[in-house]
Amino acid sequence: MPRFRRPKPESPAMELHALPADRDEDDKKFAGSGSLEEDSSELPAPTAGDAAPDSGVRKIEAIQAVWGATYGKYILWSGLAMMMIIFELDNATLYNYQPYATSAFHKQSLLAALQTMQSVVTAAAKPPIAKLSDVIGRAEAYCICITFYIISYIICASAKSMDVYAGGMVFYSLGQTGTQVLNQILLSDISPQRWRGFVLAFSYFPFLVTPWVSASIVQSVITGIGWRWGYGMFAILMPFCASFIIIPLFVFQGRAKRKGLIQPRALSPVQFFHETDILGTLLLCGGAAMILIPISLASTLPKNWSNPRIDVLLGIGGACLLFPFYERKFARFPIVPLSFFKNTTIVLSCALAFFDGFGFSATHAYLYSFVVVTRGWDARHATYLVYINGVVQCLIGIGAGWIMYKTRRYKYLIFGACLVRTVGYGVMLRLRGASNATWELYIVQCIQGIGSGVISSAAVVAAQVAVSHAHLASVSAFFLLTMFIGSSTGYAVAGAIYTNKFRGFLHHYLPASSEAEIETVFNSITGTLPAFGTPERDGINNAYSDVLRLITWAALGLSFVMPILALCLKNGYLGEGHNGVDAVEEPGEANLGTEERIGLLHDVS
């Protein structure tokens, strides 16, 4: 990866980003108007209070200086590919074991609450893990995340109660979110802004295959060795595949140290506490958990919303809203640099991520359970339906990345995708029900995948190129944080609707059924159900359709905000450099060999 020299303030390069001589005239014209520099001017230069000393950034730049002209780069890309394959296979299989695990503990009604908890942890842990990777390095952070994965597999596979299983899923969420954000940070570290959308979207290429493979795996596991071994097998597979990216990172770091590009840095416990902003992390995670989880759990507790536990949790969550005040006044190295909130591109991109995550999670929380009960589908076919959205999203994301590469713009691409999302929810109200044909269910999933594919690929690029390389990890984590807070909110709303309305719908359609029979349907998808074609089965199917329709209305209502946000984005220019704040590489720097790169690193040391 080329080093990017920041031009002096008086340099004319600040106007045109020192455009290479072979750039065509249209590119030069566009670079001067609507470029990201206009928006990035809202972002103050990093200060001691904005970010910790970026040893993680320094290490990755040193790695790029010593990885050689060819083979080192390809080793790293191959390691990332292996990591993405196992990551997607894990994500595509373990998610589908949750309905069976909760049903085994007779706690199906807590499925949305469990997913809310996971999303809260997944969201809130991203900034601290990104910060950790900046403080100790990318490879070291990978090791910690894989350790979380292994612990989670062991706990979930051996769980004897819902509480223990939920505890295992907390560790799983930490491992998953850490690996996801590190994958994205590392890909962004080594790709220029013009290619960024394509690279990030293409990194999910395993998802084009894993849903179809995972469907067979899930079916075999559920009908054979059981869901517990579904978790257990990954305790071996995950660390093996992760070694393909972790080992090369450590090898290149060692080579860089021997050349004097990485200086050993001792951190005292007090320094580590401040630089990772542990107190800010606790406020962020605690506040999100204490507000969103009670929303899903309220109707499952005695006295529902009048239960004093709900009041206590919401009170603690409200107190944690002091997080922005703490970050502004007391944090030496804020986990989320406050300067991000002054940048309209970052704020709008993250808002789009929030609403996109909300709609996706709300409409998927009970989709798997819906088709298993109302259609009688086995695990394989239910998995196909759930993940066809992701397959389309991956394909469209790659195409969107290519369009951004060719046009160097992203605003109207995002706007069109937001319109597709809104129309898709409207179609979902009509085509997602117990009486709809199978192809109609798939059409709805594909439409949503088209919209999400563009938004997830383009919005993150808009946020990333608006900051310097030193803030890349933080802004990537902040973007994913808002996406998963949206996802958590979506799961929480879906859970609240399910737990508050589904039992009532069942009583309405099954007036002659006993309370025990109602509870069986309410809390499990594996219990004995009436035969298809009977009035009782039709009543259950109609109750499921009604509750999913209410959830879809919530997603549709919020989706109207997205096109407005997209129109407010600046139509930023994607140049050849790493971002729109640092200067682009100087002519000829892209082809520098190892020794020349090392010289550049020493020059700026």
UniProtKB/TrEMBL annotation:
<comment type="similarity">
    <text>Belongs to the major facilitator superfamily.</text>
</comment>
<feature type="transmembrane region" description="Helical">
    <location>
        <begin position="346"/>
        <end position="372"/>
    </location>
</feature>
<keyword id="KW-0408">Iron</keyword>
<feature type="transmembrane region" description="Helical">
    <location>
        <begin position="229"/>
        <end position="252"/>
    </location>
</feature>
<keyword id="KW-0472">Membrane</keyword>
<feature type="transmembrane region" description="Helical">
    <location>
        <begin position="309"/>
        <end position="326"/>
    </location>
</feature>
<keyword id="KW-0410">Iron transport</keyword>
<keyword id="KW-0813">Transport</keyword>
<feature type="transmembrane region" description="Helical">
    <location>
        <begin position="384"/>
        <end position="405"/>
    </location>
</feature>
<feature type="transmembrane region" description="Helical">
    <location>
        <begin position="550"/>
        <end position="569"/>
    </location>
</feature>
<protein>
    <submittedName>
        <fullName>MFS general substrate transporter</fullName>
    </submittedName>
</protein>
<dbReference type="GO" id="GO:0005886">
    <property type="term" value="C:plasma membrane"/>
</dbReference>
<feature type="transmembrane region" description="Helical">
    <location>
        <begin position="475"/>
        <end position="498"/>
    </location>
</feature>
<feature type="transmembrane region" description="Helical">
    <location>
        <begin position="198"/>
        <end position="217"/>
    </location>
</feature>
<dbReference type="GO" id="GO:0015343">
    <property type="term" value="F:siderophore-iron transmembrane transporter activity"/>
</dbReference>
<keyword id="KW-1133">Transmembrane helix</keyword>
<keyword id="KW-0406">Ion transport</keyword>
<dbReference type="Pfam" id="PF07690">
    <property type="entry name" value="MFS_1"/>
</dbReference>
<feature type="transmembrane region" description="Helical">
    <location>
        <begin position="141"/>
        <end position="160"/>
    </location>
</feature>
<feature type="region of interest" description="Disordered">
    <location>
        <begin position="1"/>
        <end position="53"/>
    </location>
</feature>
<feature type="transmembrane region" description="Helical">
    <location>
        <begin position="441"/>
        <end position="463"/>
    </location>
</feature>
<keyword id="KW-0812">Transmembrane</keyword>
<dbReference type="InterPro" id="IPR011701">
    <property type="entry name" value="MFS"/>
</dbReference>
<feature type="compositionally biased region" description="Basic and acidic residues">
    <location>
        <begin position="20"/>
        <end position="30"/>
    </location>
</feature>
<dbReference type="InterPro" id="IPR036259">
    <property type="entry name" value="MFS_trans_sf"/>
</dbReference>
<feature type="transmembrane region" description="Helical">
    <location>
        <begin position="412"/>
        <end position="429"/>
    </location>
</feature>
<feature type="transmembrane region" description="Helical">
    <location>
        <begin position="272"/>
        <end position="297"/>
    </location>
</feature>
